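URGENT: need a sanity check before tomorrow's submission.

F., can you look over the UDP-glucose 6-dehydrogenase record below? I want to be sure the sequence and structure line up before it goes out.
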Amino acid sequence: MVKTRIAVAGLGYVGMAMAVLLAQHNEVVAVDIDAERVDLVNAGHTTIVDPQIQEFLGDRDLDLRATVAADQAYPGADYVVIATPTNYDPQANYFDTSSVNAVIKQVEELAPQATVVVKSTVPVGFTEQTRAEHPGLHIIFSPEFLREGKALTDNLHPSRIIVGGHDERARKFADMLLEGAADTDVPVLLTGSTEAEATKLFANTYLAMRVSFFNELDTYSAKRGLDTRQIIDGVCLDPRIGDHYNNPSFGYGGYCLPKDTRQLLANYQDVPQTLIGAIVDSNTVRKDWVAADIVSRDPKRVGIYRLVMKAGSDNYRSSSIQGVMKRIKAKGIEVVVYEPTFEGTDFYRSTVTHDLDAFKRDCDLIVANRITPELTDVAEKVYTRDLFGSD
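Structure tokens as predicted:
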């Protein structure tokens, strides 16, 4: 049986998980501008913190190699999956899609016959506009729904597979995702490309709204001297609400939710709305209140326990605790960071330590977005809004 040849551009969370998933049954060549990432993959190691990806790289028969050279990855490819970063640019009020655009131009030159599948999150309407700019290319969009630290798990057991296209190439890509999954009863939805783009942004904004709701419930309870957990338990017994995604935090963060909510808000230009803007504003208000609550305790040296957004992740990008940290520092309070995965000794002019015992001893208040057993012995020093010990 002839394998489908697939190139994957980008070896971050999305690209690494896609490459491993598809390499179970297809020939996959991953390309990344970072030579260190390429060397890791070729040596059988993951580029991100994800235990199941590492397990697959070590134990499964995968047809996967990596390269820094686009001309070794794209020519002859049947599909090119783009999984490069699209950070939100606050100045332009828009996603920076330059990395996606660059790959598309390379594919146009090196493999114009390939179907381009954009997995990077993009503004609503991007794919349709890009098709008009590159009429010789076949471009589709397929949103990704994964959690940091569990990227491959969420591709093996997907909640749904959505591909923005109705033709045979789109159907084949959906079939390849389904073939790689461990589950067989996965809902598959073929939509328009613009509808698929909107689905991604609306889904993440809904999750951000849920985080914000329970955070504002917690803020109210704390200000009124109420027991947050009792209220959440009572609210979540309603089966229409449920008891998932209800743990208070310092705010929603990570790579996706902050930028996706802002991009969706930007896409609402000339469209009436109040809720989407409120979700974005709520996250800032929450971090303001958390920082003020910490400062009101008059700490002399504050310890920031972990910069990562959630357990099992190595991602610091837009983690909510950083926003709290910056607000505390702005009040002139000394801040020390404990982050064992950070290689430097300084993070935004705050000392970084890998010595947990010294960290716990020398800080009079320890700020933790999520509580762990490591902090049990200094529980009286810990400031957290975590009630359930989960993300």
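My own read: The longest strand covers residues 5-9. The two ends are 43 Å apart (CA to CA). If you see anything odd, call me.
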